[in-house]
Amino acid sequence: MALQEAVENRATILIVDDLALTRRQLWDILTEVGYQVLQADSAAKALEIASSSIPDMILLDIVMPGKDGFQACRELKTFPALAEVPVIFISALDETSSKVNGFYAGGVDYISKPYEKEEVLARVKTHLSMRQLQMSLKNSNTEMEERVHQRTAELIAKHEQLSNLFKQVRHAKIQWEQTMDCIDDIVMLVGADGALIRCNKALINFTGVDSYQDLLGLDWLKLLASCGLDLARLSNRAQELFHESSGRWFTVKWYNYADKNGAVIALHDMTAIKKVSQELTKAYDELKSTHRRLVQQEKMASIGQLAAGVAHEINNPMGFISSNLETLGKYAARLRQYMSVQDEVIKGVADPESLEMLAEARKRLKIDYLLDDIPALVAESNDGALRVRTIVQNLKGFSRTDMAEMELADINDCMDRAVNIAWNELKYKVNLTKNYGELPTVSCYPQQLGQVFLNFLVNAAHAIDRQGEVTITTRAEKGYVSISVADTGCGIPQGNLDRIFEPFFTTKEVGTGTGLGLAISYEIIQSHGGTIDVESEVGKGTTFTVRLPTENPVQEGDL
After folding, report:
1. How much is the mean pLDDT over the chain?
2. Is 242 helix (H, G, I), strand (E, B) or coil?
């Protein structure tokens, strides 16, 4: 009751009266007990306010300029949103005809002037309570009608479903009786308690009993469990079970029978299909694996041919460049010697003015700087030529030409050489940890393995933005040595892991990677009879792991 009063006292009441004093008196009475009050001094203003902010009740004066209260009430009731709002007329007219006209106009009550505070509050509260009850009843009726319609539709649908099922079951019963003994699958009809009602000859043969009568009334789950098929945990959908004693596979299905007080159980022997499926799956997996290897080999062969051609074309001009750089260095040294002799001679025969002009020209043309800079330029050019020759050698190695001889090598030494070469990339932002194990020597091409390790280290350095860790771990395994390079860099997205060994595939910015490093590394490790694996997680880092055989090393002719 307290909650209902609180709700009522928060109701909004519209006072419509042309006299400000009357509106003020009613406003004081209503707001004192907590009602929200709106005011209008004419019928037109009341319509405007009620249309924009629908009140819970309207106190309407009958006698007003322009439209009277009866006209205003009838017009208010034409709006659907206001049709249910209770209207109480307020007037000094106390004739019965005025009250009747008020009720005909749509009013629910009548308060005569002068009015008492208690009467106003009592009538307002009464009609607000009645409005609350009417709205609750209306909502309940609407909800009940919706439920009745929904339930009726559900019952109709259920009736149609049961009717169809009844027809299907009746037809299935006739066909069952005629055909169940002619099929090879095990078929059973069981009751709600699990007791066997009917079965076919396939079940008799499976259980090894003498006759159909020996099985009637037995619990079908226990019966099959005694024969080696535990179906107790099966759900109401098709599943596969293996019968160990016979080596047979069964697909088990069951179907609700009629009103669900029973079920039809079917066990289909799918042993032959299962074997074929397993063979097909195995063949398909092997085909996919072979296809991937062939595609990779074809890619590597194509790149190898390209690399051999590029290496050949670069070698010839690089020979000229290296030779010319060496000659240019000698020429520069001789020219410097000549200039020194010339300076001494000129100092002995030239007058001071000529010497000053020569000195000024020498300074303006920066002759001394040129003589000092030429050896440095030649040295830098020689260094660049050496780097080009190194790249050419790598390309030759990639194309399987111009290889050094195989030798027994210490993998830890190969890794140390790679670290020394890559140290300029690592030293400023990498904390390097070496966890070297005792390894047997491996028959290999050390230069090529060093190239693989160098590629791992450079990639690790590029993957680390500012500061990070690189951990090198080597250990001996049965018949293999394992080498891993782990970094705490940015990691490789999962979608790129399957492609990182493809030639020319790179995630680096243009100009920082060719996409050949890992492709070459993959080919080198494969040619050594080893494996290369990668694990990576974005934001945590990447680990490359190489495993090389030690017991049966590859021969030179195999590469």
Report:
1. 79
2. strand
Query: Where do the DSSP E strands lie in 130-191?
Result: 186-191
Element (H, E) at 58: strand 57-61
Q: Are 264 and 188 in contact (CB under 8 A)?
A: yes
Q: Is 524 strand, coil or helix? A: helix
The pair of structure tokens assigned to 86 is 């209770």
In a 3-state reduction of DSSP, which class is residue 444?
Answer: strand
Tell me, what's the pLDDT at 557? Answer: 44
Low-confidence ranges of the chain (pLDDT < 50): 1-7, 398, 401-402, 510-515, 555-559
Determine the pLDDT at residue 391: 59
Q: Cα–Cα distance between 39 and 54 in angstroms, integer? A: 13
pTM: 0.35
Q: For helices 367-398 and 446-463, what crossing angle results, to 10°?
A: 110
Cβ contact 83:119 at 8 Å: no
257 sits in which H/E element? strand 248-257
Q: What is the pLDDT of residue 543?
A: 94
Strand partners, 268: 251
Distances (CA, A) of 503 to 118, 237, 296, 456, 478: 95, 49, 9, 16, 32
Residues in the chain: 559
pLDDT of residue 512: 46
Which pLDDT score, from 0 to 100, does residue 507 have?
59
Intra-chain end-to-end CA distance of the chain, in Å: 96
How far lies 165's CA from each of 173, 253, 266, 509, in Å? 12, 18, 19, 67
What does the alpha-carbon distance between residue 470 and residue 415 come to, in Å, rounded to a whole number?
Answer: 13
- Nearest CA among 497, 502, 455 for reference residue 303: 502
